[in-house]
Design goal:
The protein has 93 residues and is of the alpha+beta class. It has one domain (3-92): Double Stranded RNA Binding Domain. It has 1 helix and 6 strands, in the order βββββαβ. The strands form 2 sheets. A 4-stranded mixed sheet has the order 5-2-1-6, with helices on one face. The N and C termini lie far apart (60 Å).
């Protein structure tokens, strides 16, 4: 049985718009441990589910998708966004 994380997308600090904020991304947890490749030394595993990322408009849709397929989940919500309200004149006090 695979396990997945459902993560709330947040707006990056360099973005001014809010187009993708509030969406949810489903990412699968790693089932096999990473091992170094004997030829290149790069870490890898046979677990390809970690490469899959699914996006949903709401948390309920993501949870319903997992329930229908028998995927165990845990939800990671975004931290609350705090606004620092400041007037331009406060720079000169």
């Amino acid at each position: 049985m695979s396990t997945a994380r459902i993560i709330e997308n947040v707006r990056k600090t360099t973005q001014s718009g809010k187009a993708q904020a509030g969406r949810w991304t489903l990412m699968f947890e790693r089932e096999e441990k990473m091992t170094p490749d004997p030829l290149t030394g790069w870490a890898g595993s046979g677990d390809t589910e970690t490469q899959i990322r699914l996006t949903f408009p709401t948390l309920e849709e993501a949870q319903r998708y997992c329930e229908e397929r028998g995927i165990a989940t845990h939800v990671v919500k975004a931290p609350p966004h705090k606004l620092k309200i400041q007037a331009y004149a406060d720079n000169f006090k």
